[in-house]
Amino acid sequence: MSVEEFKDGLNPKPTLLITHNDHSVSISLALIGSKVEGIQLNDPGCVFKTCPLYSSLLESLHSNIRHL
């Protein structure tokens, strides 16, 4: 992930994040995407094996995630 650094913080750049078909990675990266505009996950559906309602839960938090 590309990040612009400032004295008082960081500004992550929009990017495609790779989940490696790992539900725990996808869940973690989705949380980043809920706060950073323009973050996309290549396989967000892999979370369904452990949490079938995860995308609905994120949407209920007004997530910024854009799925491919």
Structural class: alpha/beta
* Strand neighbour order, sheet with most strands: 3-4-5
> Which residues sit in consecutive blocks of at least 5 with pLDDT less than 50?
none
In N-to-C order, the SSE pattern is EEEHEHE
Give helix % range: 25-40%
Protein described:
The chain has helices at residues 23-33, 54-60, and strands spanning 3-6, 9-12, 15-17, 39-41, 66-67. It is globular and about 40 Å long. The chain has 2 helices and 5 strands. Strand 4 (39-41), helix 2 (54-60) and strand 5 (66-67) form a beta-alpha-beta unit. It has one domain (15-67). GO terms for molecular function: transferase activity, transferring alkyl or aryl (other than methyl) groups.
Question: How are the secondary structure elements laid out?
Answer:
Elements: E1 3-6, E2 9-12, E3 15-17, H1 23-33, E4 39-41, H2 54-60, E5 66-67
Parallel strand pairs: 3-4, 4-5
Antiparallel strand pairs: 1-2
GO molecular function: transferase activity, transferring alkyl or aryl (other than methyl) groups
InterPro entries: Enolpyruvate_Tfrase_sf (IPR036968), RNA3'P_cycl/enolpyr_Trfase_a/b (IPR013792)
